[in-house]
Amino acid sequence: MLNERGIDFEYREYTKDPLDEAEIRDVLAKLGMQAKDVLRKRDKATKELGLTGDEGDDVIIPHMAKNPGMLQRPIGVVGDKAVVGRPVENLLELV
C-alpha cells in the first residue's frame, strides 16, 4: 500500500533483526500502549510461555525481545509517533 502511494519507508525484518527490550519500550511509549496491548495472544511462544496478557511490561517485554513473533505487526514509526498497522491503513496516519 505504501509503495502504491509512492511513500518511502524502511522495512525492518523483525525475524532477522528483532527489536531489543529498549527498542520495544521506546515503540510502546510512541504508541502510548503497554506490552499487553500489542501482544499476539495466539502466537505459539505466547501460549508456550503461558502468558495471558494480564502480565506487566516487565514480564512481557523480555519475552517479546526473545520471541519477536509475539509482537503485533506491522508497526510504523515516524519520529515520536507510532501506529500499529492493523488495519494497514492505520499506517497512513504517520504521513
Walk me through what this model shows.
By secondary structure, this protein is an alpha+beta fold. It has helices at 21-31, 44-49, 57-66, and strands at residues 75-78, 81-84.
How many individual domains?
1
How many E strands?
Answer: 2
How big is the Rg? 13 Å
Q: Level of helix content?
A: 25-40%
CATH architecture classification: 3-Layer(aba) Sandwich
How is the biggest beta sheet arranged? 2 strands, antiparallel
Topology pattern, helix = H, strand = E: HHHEE
Number of helices, where a helix is a run of at least 4 consecutive DSSP H or I residues: 3
Spatially, the strands of the biggest sheet line up as 1-2
Going by CATH, the homologous superfamily would be: Glutaredoxin
Mean pLDDT, rounded to whole units? Answer: 94
Question: Which CATH class applies here?
Answer: Alpha Beta
Q: How widely separated are the two ends?
A: 13 Å
Structural class comes to alpha+beta
Low-confidence stretches: none
- Shape, principal axes of CA atoms: elongated
Distinctive features:
Glutaredoxin, single chain, alpha+beta, 95 residues
How would you sum up this structure in a few lines?
The chain has 95 residues and is an alpha+beta fold. The chain has helices at residues 21-31, 44-49, 57-66, and strands spanning 75-78, 81-84.
Topology:
Blueprint: H1 21-31, H2 44-49, H3 57-66, E1 75-78, E2 81-84
